[in-house]
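Q: What structure does this chain adopt?
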Amino acid sequence: MLKVKNLSKKIGNAFALQGVNFCAQKGELLLFLGHSGAGKSTLLRTLCNLEDYEEGVISYNGHCINNHVGMVFQHFNLFEHLTVERNITLPLEKCLKKTKKEATETAFFLLDQYGLLDKAKNSVLTLSGGEKQRLAIARTLSLNPQIICFDEPTSALDPLLATQIRGTLEDLCEQGKIVLVATHDMTLASKLKKYTLHFMKNGSIVESCKSDEFYKDKESFPSMSSFLSL
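A:
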C-alpha cells in the first residue's frame, strides 16, 4: 500500500503542497484533478523524489518509496540524441546494473508490446508524439516500478491516442500496479471505468471520492462537479 501523510512542500514562502493525505492499494487508479497550479504535478514529482518536501511521510508497504516508483512525464523527457532502443537499455544498465544482453532483451520485449519494435534503431527525433508517449511508458515499465505516475498523459494526444492511453492505464492496474494520474482532461475522467478521484486546490486535496460515488451524488462534491462540467 502507498501511504502519503501530511505532505507539505514550499516553493519560496508559499505552499506548493499543504497537508496532503491519501493512500492507494495495489491495482488502484487515482486521478488528481484541478486547475493549473493546483499542485498536481508537484505532488507526483515529490512522490518520485524529484522534489524535496518539508513535512510528511511517504511510504510503500511501510518502507521508503524510492525504489518502487516511476514517472511518465508530460513532455516525455526522452534522450533525444539516442535511439529508441537505447532509451530503454541505458537506464537498465546504469540504474539496475543489467548486462547489455539483459537490457536489450527487455527493451525488445517492451518495444514489441508497445508497437515500436520496427523503430528500435531509429532516432527518437523521428517519432510522432504518440510514439514518444508509448516509448516513455515502455522506458518507465522497464524499471519495473510498482507505482507509476503519469503527468497529463493525454494533453498532447489526439482522441484516438488518448483512448489508447486510457486502455494502458487500466491495463497497468489489472497488472497490479498503483497508477497515479495528474490531469485536467475531463474526458479522461469521464471515460475511465473505476478509479478514485482527488480534487486539488492551492496545494491541498479538498475533495475525494470513488468514481461510482461521484456519479451517484455529484452534489456532494461541488468543486469536482464544477470542474468536470467545464
